[in-house]
Amino acid sequence: MLHILIGDDVAAIKRRVRTLIPLATSDRHFLEHQTLADLERLLRLAESRSLLGHRSIWCRTPLLQKTAPIAVIESLQAAAQSLDTTLILSSEGIDKRLTSTKALLPFATVETYTLIAEWNIKALQQQAAAYASDVDLELNDRSLAVLVSRVGNQTELLINELEKLWLWRYHTQQPVTPTVIERLVGVSVASSLDLSRKVLASDLPEALTCLQALRARKEPEPKIIRTLDSQYRTWTRAKALLESGASNDAIATALKLGNPNRVYFLRRELQSVTLERLQRSQATILDTELALKQGQQGCLRALVLKLTA
Fold first, then answer.
1. Phi/psi of residue 281, each to 5°?
2. Where are the beta strands (DSSP E) in the chain?
3. Where are the domains of the chain?
4. In the CATH scheme, what architecture does the domain 121-184 have?
5. Beta-strand relationship, 2-6 and 85-90
6. Helices (H), ranges, 81-185
7. Cβ(88)–Cβ(3) under 8 Å?
8. What angle, 0 to 180 degrees and rounded to 10, lies between the N-to-C axes of helices 141-151 and 155-172?
9. What Rg do the C-alpha atoms of the chain give, in angstroms?
10. 168 exposed, middle or buried (CB, 10 Å; 0-12, 13-18, 19+)?
């Protein structure tokens, strides 16, 4: 059996590896293919018989991004048809134009694990719910929303924080509420985009917490302002297009969105926000940017207060 796992969601790939190759497996090997000698060792393992009955091999390799010798492909094809489990991990994609890759793919099961886009809040909450279920932790929709607002799309951080919450519940025998999450889970991956969402939702406490995290990370204030300005420009234009009755495809084209599905989430974000409010907010952001350039202090906090009012 040959599985190829690709993508940048390292935690999700690790989770899948544990499923395919349990820790209790006696004859298991991990290889970091960096040199030709490493590759030859992988081939020898893939071709040899295991005295223990079943062997599991997993390796991290750039094998799928460049032409591989025919001997390598033949060995992996043989591994794919055996009872042993061979995994190939790659953070980069597969170059399907390569002759060697074309010869290998029909024999392999390919799975892709990519980090969910930060704007896809619904998918992030579904992912958080799935991982919470893995550790037997029940979280309601509000708890999931608070958790995602703090960990973003960083799957590994999500898993670590869920383990922390499980331990808290185990020792206290109390349910994990949004308040508990706010107290135990820091805003570790706060971004200016997160701040934009908080002020759009008029969530002042969360917006101030996010701003504090950005400052603690020494995020440049001009950069924060630029992100706010860019996001509000997108929202203002999107709202105008939505009110004009433009189709999702037309909106995606006008806003140059890489993923047209994002229009669905824009509709949800802007459902209860008026075009006039967005225009006023954009003007306020520009005024703050000017004040910041003139050396005024406390501009960002004042901006957050105005935008969430």
1. -60, -40
2. 2-6, 28-32, 56-60, 85-90, 109-112
3. 2-112, 121-184, 220-308
4. Orthogonal Bundle (1.10)
5. parallel
6. 99-104, 121-134, 141-151, 155-172, 178-184
7. yes
8. 130
9. 25
10. middle
Q: Give the closest residue to 308 by CA, choosing from 218, 228, 224.
A: 228
Q: What is the pLDDT of residues 231-282, one digit of tens each?
A: 899 999 999 999 998 888 888 888 888 777 788 888 888 988 899 999 999 9
Which are the contacts of 212, defined by CB distance < 8 A and separation ≥ 6? Answer: 187
The whole-number pLDDT of residue 51 equals 45
Distances (CA, A) of 295 to 217, 222, 281, 290: 21, 12, 21, 9
Spatial separation of the C-alpha atoms in residues 45 and 27, rounded to whole Å: 11
220-308 belongs to CATH 1.20.272.10: yes
Residue with tokens 């040199």: 35
Per the listing, tokens 């040899």 go with 48
**19-60, pLDDT tens digit by residue?**
877 655 556 666 565 565 666 666 666 566 554 445 566 566
| CATH code for the domain defined by 2-112 | 3.40.50.300
